Request: fold
Amino acid sequence: EPGQFFPVAAAAEAEAESSTTTEEAYSVPDGAENFEFEAEVHRMLDIVVNSLYTNKDVFLRELISNASDALDKARFVSLKNKKILKEKPEMEVQVEYDGDANTLTIRDTGIGMTKDDLVQNLGTVARSGTTKFLEALADKDKSSDIGGMIGRFGVGFYSTFLVSDRVTVASKHPDSKKQYVWESTNGQSSYHIFEDPRGNSLGRGTEITLHLKEDATEYADDAKLKELVGHYSEFITHPIRLRKVVTTTVEIEDDDDDETSEKEEEEEKKETDDLEVGEEEESTTTDDDGDSEPEEKPKKTEEVTTYEWEEVNTTPAIWTRDKDEITSDEYQEFWKVLSKESYTDCSRWTHFNAEGNINFKSILYLPSEIPKHYQFGNIDKVEGGLKLYVRKVLISDEFDLMPRYLGFIRGVVDSEDLPLNVNRETLQESKILKVIKKKLVRKALDMLKDFAKEPMPEPEPAQAEIDADGNEVISEPEEKEHPYLEWYSKFSNNIKMGVLDDDANRAKLAKLLRFKTTKSDGKLVSLEDYVANMKEWQTDIYVLPGSSLEDAQKSPFLEKFKEKDVEVVYFIDPVDEYMVQQLRDFDGKKFSTISSENVELQDEDKDLVKRREKAYKKQYKPLTKWLKKLYGPAVMRISISKRLGTSPAIVSSGQYGHSANMERIMRAQAFQTGQDDFMMKAQKVMEINPRHPFLTKLLEGCPPEEEDENEPFKVTQEVEDAAWILLDMALMNGGFQIEDVKGHSKRMTRYLKSHLAVDSLALADEIDPPEEDEEPDEIDLDGLDGLNMADFDMNNLDLDGMMG
Reply:
């Protein structure tokens, strides 16, 4: 049977059963011809084993890829010579292992190799047919030689020595009357070829048996092999079948009854007649009708080991088909296979063929749900999100084919311009990958743009229901948001990270952004829509940072803008302010944070504003001078506000400094250390409202601008406390925290003492209540109001069962 390998080699191994090394366990079969590897091949073997492949698992990928090439060649040749497939019509790859012999066998029914082919293909360096076949396919003058380019072994074959002490190749070509064996030991500079003593056991094709190293026994396991085949060769066109070991328990007949003699039967019958009734009752059973039946003896069983073949690559590679022939259901089914998430559907996909210097086919998917690790703030790429194939053979799913902000995108990329047998590190630095990545990013952003511009789906028709009185009630369907907005609410941070990181595509990404505004009624709108609705005189996009939508909506900074009906964008995500530092402007309109100083509305009479400002500064100069001296470094300066309405004061941030929200975010960094506190602080500017009565009173109670040196002005404690309380209010109105919490507490204590007319803060004497008898705690029956027997369902209560 194919796979129960070579009697000659097996005999040699049996003779040295007790040996522990490969050299002791193996001897060259009689009649074998000895060949020396080319010098290049010997060096190649050393490169393969020591540096080319960093992952040993790839050997199975390489062998199955070669087997697929051989099957392609057999099919091609059969177009002209149908007799090729007559002896062996099956076109498949088989994988099996022998745990006792510690071998792994990969068998195909491809074109096979003659003796000369074994010498040429396995004894000389890098005769890979992949690239040559594709070149020949494009060259019409050499079309007659196309079949000869498929199925050639290349560098990938030598990866077998990553896991093998010895490799044995048996092959049968239709043009060869005999089946030959190629065999070589790891580390040797020679190989052997001999006629297969089993005869023509293959019919057609090639069989490669790996005699596994001691540290590679994990590959003699069906679960491991199924995992590797499914990972690397899931989409190979030809079926790949894995032989599995199945152990079942079966019943066997008891031979003791057949060996009982007639005399023994008679004696047994006589003894049975003499048995007492009690014993008879023990050996019989009674059925429902009262009849006695002989008790059945337990049957004997044994475990039987059988083998069965399981096809492990049943998923079709739909990206190779024309996208017009693929249904939406097929795309969704492929998404489930690719993502391993059978419970979700993808939001959108794009299927395209890229042509140019680099040709490849690809399907990219937008997931509908965020990856689990996104929920904890880790927005690194999804492991295995994008898989890179060469002619449907997986090269790796670890390449950085997408920037970090698009790491959630999943899909496949299949290129015929990439080398199959080059390690991941080398390919990662290849210019080819950079070209592929650039095209993938462009296609992904185009998919998002088209998604955002899709028309709103038709609403569901109204549903008619019958109420309790038999009347028909029409229920209006709930208003649904645009599918892109639903998706964006989950992945918005990724788009904003792209604005931060991707200079080349920043303008495209800005059009994908969505925000809530003072006029959007809680809905998300684009910056394009905001600009379209701007006032004619408006030149800036006004934004307001905040820790939440509720806090931002209550901000005093909005008073002037609401009064003039100017729309303001809410920045309520922590990443928003970081993002706008890079974005700067949109469609020629720069972003202006209304919580910073010097924010002006261009519709005002500038001359009138300047005259008022000048007059207020002169009027409140004594107060601003005294407050700056009183507050010290708590604020950078005191200014007259041009925008406050009902609020007495507010603390804004400097024009080029951090906002209150950014200061809060920076202080909340979990791993920040060694950060200068001054660098994290915002430049606080206290704006006072010159029209507010609080400020008028404070002006009356503060020192005059020119004090009398002989009689210095003394500010009362009440006025000083009021000034500090005003600062605390202004800080909180501006979104800042109160820094001097203890001072604030003392001031509020003095205020309460005065307001409540408390003479002393000394505590009252402790009370000494008389001793009383302990009483049980009262049961709170308030929650049992209205409880009655009608609340219990007594119909289904099994009283008989409760009584036993």
About this structure: The two ends are 66 Å apart (CA to CA).
